[in-house]
Amino acid sequence: MPIDLTDRQQNDLHRAMLDYLHSAGYHKTFEQFKEECAQADYEPDAGSKTKDLLVKKWTSVIRLQKKIVDLETRLAQALQDSANVVANPANLNQRSNPDWLPTVTPPKLVLTGHRANVNAVTFHPLYSVLVSASDDSTMKVWDWETGELERTVQGHTRRVSDCEYDSKGKFLVSGSHDLFIKLWDVDNEYKNIATFRGHDHSISTVRFLPGDDRIVSASRDQTVRVWEVATTHCIRVLKPHEDWIRTAIPSLDGRLLVTSCMDHTARVIETANGNLKAEFRGHDNVVENAIFAPRNAVPAISELAGLKTGATPATSTTEDASVAFVVTASRDQKIKIWDARTGQCLHTMVGHDGWVHGLVFHPNGRYLLSAADDGSIRIWEIKTGRCIRKVDTGERFMSSLAWGRQTVGGGAAGAAKDGQSEGPRRVNVIASGCWDYTVKIWKP
């Protein structure tokens, strides 16, 4: 026995070992060890302080080892981030650096003011403005540069599940569990100028279709509806699923929608008539989110899937490239990348320890960011399918994730380098909506 143990420590250790041997059913070893360690008077006692002590100590050591490995990983990443900052030229504008990624450090800002869970966040396309939608029946407008609350938008009577600005930032659309979709005039102090009625159950998501003259919504009433902004009329009712539809997200040109559902599937349908184009089966639980991969992510996904350069599932046209792949997030804690033409699963990303909700592609098309109920944002390198960074948020449940829409700078050369269309780069800012009633902001 090591000499650094006191008699009392030795006695406690022996009794803990005897308790384990007895509870594990090693009765012969128990009797022999009892004799060898001079514990002839020992009898198992459920109320003893040594009851299950060995098991508790062992599991504590495992947890501590896991924490140490996690802290070492975070420290190494922080040191690498610091080295990158030092190595960059002094005049490098991280705000528009096309390769910027959030670091493992805490968020730059934590926006507080909601009185219930935050379900969605959306950025203004032109200004440093962010809107959050909450279970407290309100939306709040924030300046994400300063963290100041600019106003509270009221009008819904139940949970506000989603919201989005149009492409010019003139109008904001919101959907709620009160069954209504509302349109708000941004330049007129967010006045409610239209209400869309027709859904028979809670509204999950609302999005502007390209051109901003129509809105598409998904609902628990098992329908996807297309609305005309000018008249507030529902002009199309689509039924791609027979269960609660969690999301309906339009393609870049608005011809297609990708839906996710409680039935464990995601589907691509035509906006004009609801015709099924592809179905994605493979998740073991509810599919919480589904999005089309942007054009500039196609090369990285093709490399990941082992496809030859240019041999994407879509045809060679640029428009088809924007609907070549779909990414889904599920309550089964997995993210899957799919061939949008055949419905084949090309890759599964495993790493989260909770329901995955938020998905957003990095503007350069080389990374995918995901947010989940394990309290983390994970950054995935698409061409390898590996998680290269884990950003802890400090909150267990995360409902949404968004990358800023505002653009900075200009110059075609820079735009071509990061894979974006001709024009300025998108600003580097990320927001997450959390169930601790806050919105968290990461920026350089």
Distance between the termini: 55 Å
Q: Level of helix content?
A: 10-25%
Q: Based on DSSP secondary structure assignment, what is the total number of beta strands?
A: 30
Gyration radius (Cα, Å) is 27 Å
The low-confidence runs, each spanning 5 or more residues with pLDDT under 50, are 309-318, 411-422
Strand percentage lies at: 35-45%
Sheet of most strands: 4 strands, antiparallel
Oligomeric assembly: single chain
* Secondary-structure-derived class: alpha+beta
Strand order of the largest sheet: 1-30-29-26
Q: Mean pLDDT, as a whole number?
A: 87
User: What is the count of DSSP helices, taking H or I runs of 4+ residues?
Assistant: 6
Shape: elongated
What is this entry, summarized?
The protein has 444 residues and is an alpha+beta fold.
Question: How would you describe the overall organization of this protein?
Answer:
The protein has helices at residues 7-23, 27-36, 53-87, 298-305, 318-321, 412-417, and strands at residues 109-112, 118-123, 129-134, 138-143, 149-154, 160-165, 171-176, 181-185, 191-196, 203-208, 214-219, 224-228, 234-238, 245-250, 256-261, 265-270, 276-281, 287-292, 325-330, 334-339, 345-350, 356-361, 367-372, 376-381, 386-392, 398-403, 407-408, 425-426, 430-434, 438-442. It is α+β, with helices and mostly antiparallel strands and 444 residues long. The strands form 8 sheets. It has a 4-stranded antiparallel sheet, with no helix packed on it. Strands 2-3-4-5 form a 4-stranded antiparallel sheet, with no helix packed on it. The longest helix is centred in the N-terminal third of the chain and has 35 residues, at 53-87. The relative contact order is 0.11.
